[in-house]
Amino acid sequence: MTGDLDDSDLACQVFVTLVTDYLEGALPGPVLQQVQAHLAECPDCAEYLDEVRRTAAALGHVPVRSLSERTREGLLEAFRGYRAG
Ligand SMILES: [Zn+2]
């Protein structure tokens, strides 16, 4: 609880859009810090990241659409809500 960052800056659906760049080390510093802060307090995103990272290790590159069905459905749902808003 530092109060330096607005907790709403990085919602789960935003994290999902950044996870590929995160794994590729392509995020700018300030964004990377917010991602790491979010991961620290969001088990769901940490689990998602772990799944993507394992898949990436198996494939040799970061996957775009090889998530489990259940995870993907949830993400698509989040995306729809995000874009509709
Ligand atoms: Zn999250």
Question: What do these coordinates show?
Answer:
The protein is mainly alpha-helical and 85 residues long. Helices cover 68% and strands 0% of the residues. The protein is built from four helices and no strands. It has helices spanning 12-23, 29-41, 43-59, 69-84. Helix 1 (12-23) runs parallel beside helix 3 and helix 2 (29-41) crosses helix 3 (43-59). The longest helix has 17 residues, at 43-59. The radius of gyration is 13 Å and the shape is globular. The protein starts with 11 loop residues before the first helix and ends with a helix. The structure holds zinc ion. Zinc ion (ZN) binds next to helix 1 and helix 3.
- Count of DSSP H/I helices: 4
Task: Count the beta strands.
Answer: 0
Determine Rg (CA atoms, Å). Answer: 13 Å
Small molecules held by this entry: zinc ion
Give the averaged pLDDT, no decimals. 76
Large-scale geometry: globular
Class by helix and strand content? mainly alpha
Quick recap of the structure?
This protein has 85 residues and is an all-alpha fold. It contains four helices and no strands.
Task: Give short descriptive properties of this protein.
85 residues, mainly alpha, binds zinc ion
List the helices and strands and how they pair.
Elements: H1 12-23, H2 29-41, H3 43-59, H4 69-84
Helix pairs in contact: 1-3, 2-3
Zinc ion (ZN) is lined by residues 12, 15, 38, 42, 44-45.
